[in-house]
Amino acid sequence: MYVIWLTERMYELFVSLHLNFMFNMDNLSWIHQISPQELEDLYKRYLNDKHTVDEQWLKFFEGFELARKNYNEDQVFQSPSIIGKEFSVIEMIQAYRQRGHYFTETNPVRKRRVYYPDLTLENFGLEEADLDMDFSAGNDVGLGKTKLRNILDLLKETYCRSIGVEFMYIRLPDIVEWLRNRMESGRNRPMFSVEDKKRLFKQLSDSVFFEKFLQKRFPGQKRFSLEGAENFIPAVQIMIDHASSLGVKDFVFGMAHRGRLNMLANILNKPIEQIFAEFDGKEFDEINVLGDVKYHMGYVSYRTTEHSGVVTLTLSPNPSHLEAVGPVVQGLSRSKIDKGGGDLNSVIPVVVHGDASVAGQGIVYEQVQMSELKAHRAGGTIHIVINNQVGFTTDYLDGRSSIYCTDVAKVIQSPIFHVNGDDIEAIAYTMKLAVDYRMKFNKDVFVDLLCYRRHGHNESDEPRYTQPQLYKAIGAHQDPLQLYSLQLMSEGVIDEAYTEKTQSEYFQRMDASLSDSKSIEKVHLDVFLHEQWKALPRAEEDEIYTYVDTTSDIDILMEVGRKANSIPHGFTVYSKLDKILQSRLDMLDKGEIDWGLAEQLAYATLLNEGSNVRVCGQDVERGTFSHRHAVVTFEDTSEKFYPLNHIRKGQAKFEIYNSLLSEYAVLGFEYGYAMYRPNDLTIWEAQFGDFANGAQIIIDQFIASAEEKWGVMNNLVMFLPHGYEGQGPEHSSARIERFLNFCANYNLDVLQCSTPASLFHALRRHLKRPYRKPLVMFTPKSLLRHPQCVSNISEFTEGSFELIIDDLLAEKQKVTHFVFCSGKVYYDIISERDRRDAGYMAVVRLEQLYPFAFQMLKDIISRYPNTEQLIWLQDEPANMGPWMFLSKWLRPLHFRLISRPFSSSPAAGSYSLHKLRQKKLIDKLFGECHCERTKVECKMICLGATSNEIQL
Known about the structure:
Blueprint: E1 2-3, H1 4-21, H2 29-32, H3 36-48, H4 55-69, E2 77-78, H5 81-99, E3 134-135, E4 146-147, H6 148-159, E5 163-166, H7 173-186, H8 194-217, H9 232-245, E6 250-255, H10 260-266, H11 272-279, E7 299-305, E8 309-315, H12 325-339, E9 347-354, H13 355-360, H14 362-370, E10 382-387, H15 396-399, E11 416-420, H16 424-441, E12 445-450, H17 468-475, H18 480-490, H19 496-517, H20 530-533, H21 554-563, H22 575-590, E13 592-593, H23 595-608, E14 613-617, E15 632-633, E16 640-641, E17 654-658, H24 664-675, E18 681-685, H25 696-703, H26 706-710, E19 717-721, H27 736-742, E20 749-751, H28 756-768, E21 775-779, E22 791-792, H29 794-797, E23 804-805, E24 817-821, H30 825-836, E25 841-846, E26 848-850, H31 854-861, E27 869-877, H32 883-890, E28 895-900, H33 911-925, H34 935-941
Parallel strand pairs: 6-8, 6-9, 9-10, 10-12, 11-12, 14-17, 14-18, 18-19, 19-21, 20-21, 24-25, 24-27, 27-28
Antiparallel strand pairs: 1-2, 3-4, 5-11, 7-8, 13-22, 15-16, 20-26, 23-25
Helix pairs in contact: 1-5, 3-5, 5-6, 8-9, 8-18, 8-19, 9-16, 11-19, 12-24, 21-23, 23-28, 24-25
């Protein structure tokens, strides 16, 4: 027999150990994995022969015996089975924390799936008779020694009612303990005053009545109704109010189309009459704006809060490509944070997901993986999932393999709160908890609102075709406002007259707004982020080709160039890197600048003039082709040094980050970052230009079209390494043809520079013009070290960016063959021209592919009066590269094409085949071919018989 006191002290010791080690379960697996009977058997074995138990249990029982012998044995004794039951209770507590979310009341319209083992007492070796027994395990839940019944009540209320929580997988003990204490101390049970409840009722009323009004006045129109999830609006209201009381001044939202109109009306306070005018399908008031459907539009508003004055609410525009807006929101948030001095708690990014998309779209995984990286951290995103339990028509059982749609959150150990979408008070409580978590730990947090979709995917869909049982239940289910009204009436907070008055007043206001909307002739599209862009209006056509002074003073160039390639005295770097830095200093002295130094000088001069520079992408710090070395690592300490941040005191900031292995999310982030920085240089570089394929949605839906669709301007620069050097189909082409296919209405600048000076002027021009456009820059690979690809320093102190570079070496009167090309192939042509001494040929370079300077080209051609052949030569196959786009200008001038043959693959995989095709390409230019065709066939097919034929 053993003393009760000793049992209690040993249990308290165990609880202490448990709390210290519970976050590394391997340390206590020998305790947690044993049943009470096994524990008693082990102790008997120890008493008979201590050497029959393993070392961990030996130490445990030795401590137990020591405590027992040092205690007064006249006390009351009890059976060792008490110890076993204490262990059973602690095991039960752990089970509720770990698995309680499986047994909640969170689904408003479906029965939950059955999970085993469940949380019945028998599964822990306990029984009904134990409910009134006192257990010291109550200490673990803050109750002290108490009856099992009380412990069980607390666990059920905390973890198995309207809120289910997943958090025990988090590896950081302080986070788990903070969450556990917050939830268990209040039993995850919201406590609201009468005034709070009336405020929630008002917010929910606005949400519900807005949807009902639209359904009544615009029947059948697509609006992607929030019906079934109307509590989302009060959830966001609570989040804003609570976060603002903690000092947040800025909220950046990204969400898909469902509920967007409700969000615009009731959260961002967009004038209702404007929304109604969009329902009428009226045209936009700007000629060059096509606009977009009403549920894709963005908006910025300013709202006065009770606690912290005015806060900014920004809803990013986004397309129907689900989840694409997530990284854009994070990038925009980070840009605001950096602009405001780096306070992570000044801005909160909020991404609203659908359940099918958060589980099905890989961009979500990329987004959460980047959330805590130095390059992309934005202080933690609040993720809200509007969980309709069905995709377009796909049931959730067919839409994912994971149990929950939010399981991606576990990748970064984010806590996940599953909340009954009908329980507004539980939702409000959870949103406050989520905000507190985000503000304290600056990490992502997920809130999963279990709700439903009252209509189909859109209002014209019939969901009963595919989910008859579900929609039978939904049809009989009261909406959240009806449910909350009944609750408040039962509590005496409101009466029926109050609800009727609320609805009547709301509909009167909406009818008045609908009447006002009839007088609106055209829909106005505000410039997104107007305050940041108001000094930079959209480009006028006559500005596109205007000269811009991008030169730099020679003394400044020399000074910033030397500082950008010097390391502090007393530090050493890897010998090869030291040679690279020294070679750049030598180039400055000689006045011969290569590509890497020209890029560096562009950054350095902009930084010196006050423009920040940010570069991000895979391996950009060193550069994929080892040409950049913007970060110097000291050999002895591995400390990082950024020479470009040491140009002068008071200079602007240079940031460069190696990104995670993602194109889609990272490009979206950088686009969002640039959105808030019209006067800074933001660059994303692909490791190889081909890899931009992985970010095609961002390119299509944001970079190329956002200005025309949403009035969103941007000045992001994309560096895409491009060039045919025998590296195979996946490392040759950045798909120039795709980017040119997007080009219209001066929406993009598309460049392929052929000299270092051209790059220098292009980057500086990007910030010197009176307007901004996204810039797509096809950058070289072999030219980074090509002996002919150098520029004299005088080209940096004079001139400007040249859209087309004429052949200054050609004797104009002798030229009969005018060759027009772009990029690296220029050097291939002039090398062969020099070898053949072909003075009859002029080689002219196109540096800016779009906007295309057609009149300039015609002027240059006119300088060659004896031209017999006009040729466009490109590296790429005939169906790729710039030809298809440029041919609408070049064909009328009787240009013919010389290129690689039509192909479905961008380049040859075999290096020997590449060399053969490259030779044939150049041979065709000089009127030679080594094919096996007859001379007539060769002349027609290989060399181009007439000026109108496309060369295959």
